[in-house]
Amino acid sequence: MRQNIVAGNWKMNKTLQEGVELAKELQNALQAKAPNCRVIIGTPFIHLSEVCKTVDQELIGVAAQNCADHESGAYTGEVSPEMVKSTGASYVILGHSERRAYYHEDNAILKTKVDLALKNGLTPIFCIGEVLEEREANKHFEVVKSQIEEALFHLSADDFKKIILAYEPVWAIGTGKTASPDQAQEIHAFIRKTLAEKYGQNVADEISILYGGSCKPSNAKELFANPDVDGGLIGGASLKADDFMGIIAAF
Ligand code: PGA
User: What angle do CA 205, 39, 228 make, to 5 degrees?
Assistant: First the structure.
């Protein structure tokens, strides 16, 4: 059966030293109190190698927040999936709405990134979600469906089973506005139904679908209590060990 997961997304925060310090704090806290879910932290590229040496990855998985859509070569400033893997990291966040909005990553680019990540043995944490106008126009179902179809539905069932999905309504990210537990369950169930139509119920039941967007210790429990919400992708509240541990304790 699918895993419950709490994944942190540090975004562009923390110097190397601060990041290693936070990773140490989490390692100590989770060693003292074992989590009832998989814990992952998504750090900036430059932190990956040190953080991988700092944590026991059985306890805390390490993720990059992006990777290149090319294998190697003349792409100044880019980091390939193979390079990410060589740091010791096992996961990569792909398709985050900030990458889609600010760096123009569309579903076609993301499809290539997913393929390269899988080819290099990284588990993609693939983000989908609608913007406010789409939600208000009641288009959120078709938006997430096309994001999944265009970037992921070319995968074989065996490869699809390696994906972690994160539903993140853009209007809830960093805004303090959270989807209600009912809104989250409604669209997570829709996402799982979409997966079942393509890959069958057994595959759909194995995929972890995380919720992201202003998730914090005070609302994590009621969000995660929904049958189709298998954990969270946490931005702001993953930057302090106490807050992140409070969310992990929701399981
Ligand atoms: P937030 O970010 O928890 O700060 O809203 C979530 C995310 O962007 O992954």
Answer: 25
